[in-house]
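Deviation from plan, reported transparently: (2S)-amino(hydroxy)ethanoic acid complex.
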Amino acid sequence: MNDLNTLRSYGSVGNGVVRTAFSDIDMKSRHWLLDQLTTTGLKASIDGVGNVIGKAQDCSRSLLIGSHSDTQPTGGWLDGALGVIYGLEIARTYQETGRLANVGIDVASWMDEEGTYFSSLGSRSFCGEFTDAELLDSRSIQGGRMGDLLRQAGLDDTPRAILDPERYLGYLEAHIEQGPFLEQTGYKIGVVTSIVGVRDFVIHFHGCQNHAGTTPMDLRQDAGMAAIHAAYGLDRMLSKSAREKTVWTIGDIKFHPGAASIVPGGARISFQVRDADEGFLDFVTQEVRVYIEKLDASSKVTLELELLDDSVHAVEMNQRMQDYCARAAERLAPGEWMNMQSGAAHDAQVLAPNIASGMIFVPSIGGISHDFNEDTAEEDIILGCQVMAAAVEAILQDEG
Ligand code: HGY
Ligand code: MN
Ligand code: MN
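Because the crystal trials were delayed, the predicted structure below was used instead.
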């Protein structure tokens, strides 16, 4: 709890935290974490994209525990931080209580899971999803060159840590649920079975800016009104084709220039769909394409569809890892745990195709997250760490 509250102090605002990727406060918190991991006896470093990784010494095999410590712009104090500090606590306890000779615990805080510049940058870098050249020349979500961002952070000469699959028995990540189901059902632990995939679209509307008083309705090329109709149409379309747990969000809508007495000449909407089935997400992508093409053909406004991001794929958690987490939950919270899908994206879905990965959730009060009011009861935080530690102990004993 002390370490969670110390990490919280880096960027705390009221009950929440603002510690976005690569900000000064984020880099300061990474140096604090580096010191904690080093004191624990791990060989710790900050790599070329800002991942903080502590590696157990004198062993060729280890279990990797991690999450992210960057936050959303209006972030909660536990989103990501919980799993990183669980890793620190479990690794420290393991080192202090006489670890097994030939197997260790490594700990990671992945950079920019929240996609301030590059969604899940740190875990995707670790899993070798791109070369240095591809990374440095890529455009960040903010529009700048990633190479410039890394240079400003003083990381451009630092090597990136790359996964050695021979080293790892598996990967475990603990996270707050960020949703309502554990609290609604009264369960204390979620054992994650699968993590949803995400499709992020942006639709641009090009019309003709004009005077809101003198332009007759039948002569208007109103990009704003076209955006509103398209948004409503997308919502209606998904409500018909959605599967049981499909979710879709229009998180951002902008008009240009955005003034009451001007017919908008431009508009832009973000449209995001999440589902556990990749095939369904591909089907929806096609449905959206056809719908936008139809609107474009029938409207006086020109529409342009952009599929921003389809790199966040739906994954199943490794069954063996799920079983270790379930057995630990049953031992420490008998009858108070459930298997569940994750509606939030996580670094574990980047690691899962490369290392046997598992996740556990602890309850979020009111199901709130990505908001300063995000919170979890202290006893639930502690129980979650104990369950994670019990799962780790079983894995190391069986497979170490
Ligand atoms: O959006 C997400 O699911 C993650 O919390 N970044
Ligand atoms: Mn998170
Ligand atoms: Mn988040």
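The pocket of manganese (II) ion (ligand 2) is lined by residues 68, 79-80, 113, 175, 346 (CB under 6 Å). We consider this an acceptable substitute for the interim report.
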